């Protein structure tokens, strides 16, 4: 029993995770009223989760708080954390999470609480849905509780449920899931308005910024590539983050992923800041990129609003790509011209 509790409650990551065997792990960290300061990390027992916590929370969020970056934004800063995120790594490995404004027992509210699931080795359509459901249930339950023991109980319950349900999901990769995501993006009326100009601009920014970085090696860059993109109607929480990640991987012709991963952060609570939107961070994620977490559109505009000077041939290629995502093969049906 003690061994089982030790496994569930987490701690330091294991020194080796064993060749990419299927795994689904829930993790909770951040601020909660049940602790006087940062809460006990629960489920932080994969190397990937340790990496995500360090980059997103210990360096990114803490770094922006310590530097006063969000305070300097003034009225252009979002008042709260309310985000979903998808961090794509190689093949079918991902971390899906939610972060929301919270506080510790002393009432300090600068840091959020985070719930996330690290998964690999499963068919993505079912696993992505399961990860979202598990994270959302954990988040909603933690928001209702004020003591540490209740949070530990929530973690145990949701971890056991995640493990049991994941055991019924076999392998299958991400191809079918990514195709469905791209089709949703390619049929969105806003992105495809005015001759698909918003989609063309997003693809051009990827081409201009990310392709050169990939060629010279993202791992050698001091910073990653950042695009701010509009959400897609009717996809639900986190759906736009999934869709843009799938589209970016295809547009960049890197279906198995990029070095350091592709992080898509959906600002679901940003209606007062001109949102919602998705911040796509490709490659290395630093404190400087994560200022986007609290920066409204007044501080960082949408990439699709930037009036790039785009070659007509490039625009036609993007429209043809979008037609392929919709399952259209002939130019007449693709609607490549208005």
Keywords:
alpha+beta; 338 residues; pa0076 fold; seven-stranded antiparallel β-sheet; 7 strands
Largest sheet: 7 strands, antiparallel
Domains (count): 2
Topology order in helix (H) and strand (E) letters: HEHHEEEHHHHEHEEHH
Name of the CATH class of the largest domain: Alpha Beta
Strand content: 5-15%
CATH topology of the largest domain: pa0076 fold
Shape: globular
Describe the structure.
This protein is of the alpha+beta class. It has two domains: 2-166, pa0076 fold (3-Layer(aba) Sandwich); 175-334, no CATH class. It contains ten helices and seven strands. It has helices at residues 2-9, 47-67, 69-72, 124-144, 148-166, 175-186, 193-216, 239-251, 312-326, 331-334; strands at residues 23-30, 82-88, 94-101, 112-120, 225-230, 262-266, 277-282. Strands 1-4-3-2-6-7-5 form a seven-stranded antiparallel β-sheet, sandwiched between helices. Helix 6 (175-186) crosses helix 8. The longest helix has 24 residues, at 193-216. It is globular. The chain starts with a helix and ends with a helix.
């Amino acid at each position: 029993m003690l061994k089982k509790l030790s496994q569930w409650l987490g701690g330091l990551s294991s020194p080796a995770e064993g060749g990419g065997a299927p795994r689904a792990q829930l993790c909770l960290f951040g601020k909660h009223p049940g602790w006087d300061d940062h809460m006990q990390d629960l489920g932080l027992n994969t190397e990937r989760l340790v990496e995500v916590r360090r980059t997103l929370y210990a360096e990114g969020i803490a770094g922006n708080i310590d530097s006063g970056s969000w305070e300097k934004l003034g009225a252009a800063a979002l008042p709260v954390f309310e985000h979903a995120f998808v961090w794509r790594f190689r093949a079918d490995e991902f971390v899906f999470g939610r972060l929301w404004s919270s506080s510790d027992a002393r009432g300090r509210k600068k840091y959020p609480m985070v719930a996330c699931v690290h998964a690999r080795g499963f068919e993505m359509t079912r696993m992505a849905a399961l990860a979202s459901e598990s994270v959302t249930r954990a988040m909603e339950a933690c928001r209702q509780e004020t003591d540490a023991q209740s949070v530990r109980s929530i973690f145990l319950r949701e971890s056991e449920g995640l493990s049991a349900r994941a055991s019924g999901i076999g392998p299958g990769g991400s191809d079918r899931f990514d195709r469905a995501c791209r089709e949703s993006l390619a049929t969105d009326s806003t992105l495809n308005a005015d001759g698909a100009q918003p989609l063309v601009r997003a693809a051009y920014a990827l081409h201009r910024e990310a392709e050169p970085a990939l060629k010279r090696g993202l791992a050698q860059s001091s910073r990653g590539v950042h695009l701010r993109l509009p959400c897609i109607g009717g996809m639900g929480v986190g759906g736009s983050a999934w869709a843009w990640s799938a589209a970016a991987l295809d547009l960049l012709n890197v279906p198995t992923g990029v070095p350091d991963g592709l992080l898509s952060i959906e600002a679901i609570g940003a209606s007062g800041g001109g949102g919602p939107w998705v911040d796509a961070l490709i490659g290395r994620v630093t404190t400087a990129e994560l200022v986007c977490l609290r920066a409204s559109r007044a501080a960082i505009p949408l990439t699709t609003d930037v009036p790039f000077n785009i070659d007509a041939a490039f625009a036609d290629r993007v429209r043809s790509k979008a037609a392929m995502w919709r399952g259209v093969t002939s130019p007449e049906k693709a609607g490549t011209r208005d």
